[in-house]
């Protein structure tokens, strides 16, 4: 038996100035959100991290259903041959597929188990890196008439991409996501769907996650493998790097032709369906951390937080604490009546200090401390995660005070992030200036001729990629920042996660 | 391009008398719940089937959280060596593991893709058949003190067991489930947890699914691989066969010792933790179908049904239908106010007959038909899925009429299932009588000496297994039905899915 198994449990959080990458990992550890697993590149999402993901799921799932989609579930495994049917798609994913080749283990003469060579599969399967192929195969059977359209399907699932350099939440071999897959009678309808779902993501990012984003179209080289057009929302992290936070794809008819998804239109003419797909993943958890947290730990925006308010009773051992608990219950029910998500931390064996510290690291927006001294003044102590001071607030108006604090915190987080995005987005006309400034991070609005050659050279020389061609072209394009040919549009260049 | 891709879409449902197995598959097809996939033994859960599974998830998830558990997420893949650590566990699962051996595909010179031999993994992974090993590995890091206990974790996940004979929902290579995994300081606490979660399952089965069950303990030979004790709820299907509907396991300290899950107790003495696990799966969908459905299709108990009431407006083409739609909206909002889950089927391109038939096959408990003729009498037509007649009910008391119909249907389904369970459970003392009667199905309460030898011989001779040793021993045990030695208990023997 071994002892003291968690020596680093209470290790301090590295500051952002000191080491931003280490700070990110420290926040995840300190908030008890997730950890690396014994499986290469795969993470374990711990209960607190998962409760935040469940909030993301619930809110987005409601939106996905409101917009007419239905959830379904398709197989984890995809026959190898399916992947090859759409040429760009297989090109994009073949290199990172986990492959199932056998269906049985057997006892090894040397102890333990070995793969049973007699249980080799005739055709190998890959673990889904994304589900277009297996879902489109179903669509080909489900769709036969215009009456079956639009077909609006969503799936919450685990997927796997064998990444070489992994980073918890941001790039893991296995991750969780939702993937929408739809089929339409016309190209216009498919385009409308793609735009609608990107807008759902934008609103979610900005209103729930307090994370302003730039919405726009990806350049051809950054498109999803098999898509005609890819749209994205891009957020700026605290270090000035971009994080792609949600994508929506017009797939055109490429997959329809590969999988024979046809329908008889109202004139009984056979047509290929127009497809879309769109998704967000547990990457959003990384975006959350790097949008709002500080050197003391995570900060969760109130609209997202599983726990918006934690109440910590201050107990005196050996004394009568009943008045404290009466008021704790009172405040709890006041909160519940006002739709505030509240948790009472009445654990034994933990000191008041340990509890306060834990909830601070976990980024719960509001902490209420209540003890005999507070009650003498018929008040409690309210601590906002984004403010430095402690406030005494009256018990009589406690729900109002908490609600106001939550509104303030949500606004503060959004405004800080918006301020960062604005102040660190640069409209430049000079390539050398760009090469110099990119070293400090930020988004760069640059005129681009549209040629992959220029995009590639910029990437090689600066490590910056085109995050998107924003829908809102605030400044007119001039000549390409690199080749000086006339440019039709500005693109946002940045280094990215 | 191919046409008429769904020739069997509207094929009639085989009657139960004709062919019970085919009837089961026909109901699934007719209700559009699920279908087989191109992946061996794996199913596709279609939107309607998935909406029922989502209801199961939501209701159980609330219960699991109310009882103090938190959700988390662990890797899909399990290092092969983990499986071997607990001897019984690997013995139970090695033969049905999908094995990941490579992490890359590459283009084949003959077209398509092949497994890249250079991307062979050093250690293979299996796709989780269940997650004890990977979760217990985490527990060994997460638990160090009595303050960390009890640790109460649940996971909703897909799992894979390479079954040779598969049957949609009942036995599929991939299925969805929840798996609870907990650690406790004492054996008593672990036993209490195991009993508590079995009770959660029992109440869910009986009160939500309207499915009476027998709760009890499994015989040693039917235990979960690695458990000290396994408890189960067993339901009787319409053909008299048993379906194991949920299990809860006392794992003792076997896994704790294999994975070194220790904690310092209050006296700073190191102890091994006591573990449990418990789960229900998409098998419950099979139990649902075979508990209640009839020759016209599925019947979903109102407490479970995603849609409790469907309203079908009767539209006259070319006429003014506004009065019908006004009343449809009125009834919808009346339903919503009373917490009734309602859906309006206002699809164009589908006839009234097609719609009625579809909802009947999908087993929606109540159908409301409303047309100009109904409105003349200020009434609507209410069709209950379990009654043969159509009722005219007044619009003024519509919510009450619907609520009453839902209560009646839930009771009817439970009572029918209870009546079946009672009338087809036989307390027998004579082995030859049992051998004769088992051919017609049913549960058999037989005295059993407790020896695996007798259990095995009975299984060989009758295909009946011990479903459980019921907690409620209504009839005292006599002598073992086979060996005639004194028996301490009666066990329920039955053929099972």
From TrEMBL, chains A, B:
What biological processes does GO assign it? prolyl-tRNA aminoacylation
- EC? 6.1.1.15
All residue ranges annotated as the Aminoacyl-transfer RNA synthetases class-II family profile domain in the record: 40-301
The record's subcellular location field reads: Cytoplasm
Q: What is its main location?
A: cytoplasm
Q: Which InterPro entries match?
A: aa-tRNA-synt_IIb, aa-tRNA-synth_II, aa-tRNA-synth_II/BPL/LPL, Anticodon-bd, Anticodon-bd_dom_sf, Pro-tRNA-ligase_IIa_arc-type, Pro-tRNA_ligase_II_C, Pro-tRNA_synth_II
Which is a Pfam family this sequence falls into? tRNA-synt_2b
On whether Ubl conjugation is a keyword of this UniProt record, the answer is no
Q: Which domain of life is it from?
A: Bacteria
Annotated GO molecular function terms are: ATP binding; proline-tRNA ligase activity
Q: What are the entry keywords?
A: Aminoacyl-tRNA synthetase, ATP-binding, Cytoplasm, Ligase, Nucleotide-binding, Protein biosynthesis
Q: Name one GO cellular component term.
A: cytoplasm
The answer, when asked if Cytoplasm is one of the entry's keywords, is yes
Q: Which reaction does it catalyse?
A: tRNA(Pro) + L-proline + ATP = L-prolyl-tRNA(Pro) + AMP + diphosphate
Q: How does it assemble?
A: Homodimer.
Q: What role does this protein play?
A: Catalyzes the attachment of proline to tRNA(Pro) in a two-step reaction: proline is first activated by ATP to form Pro-AMP and then transferred to the acceptor end of tRNA(Pro).
Comment block on domains:
Consists of three domains: the N-terminal catalytic domain, the anticodon-binding domain and the C-terminal extension.
Give the similarity note: Belongs to the class-II aminoacyl-tRNA synthetase family. ProS type 3 subfamily.
**Name of protein:** Proline--tRNA ligase
The species is Candidatus Kerfeldbacteria bacterium CG15_BIG_FIL_POST_REV_8_21_14_020_45_12
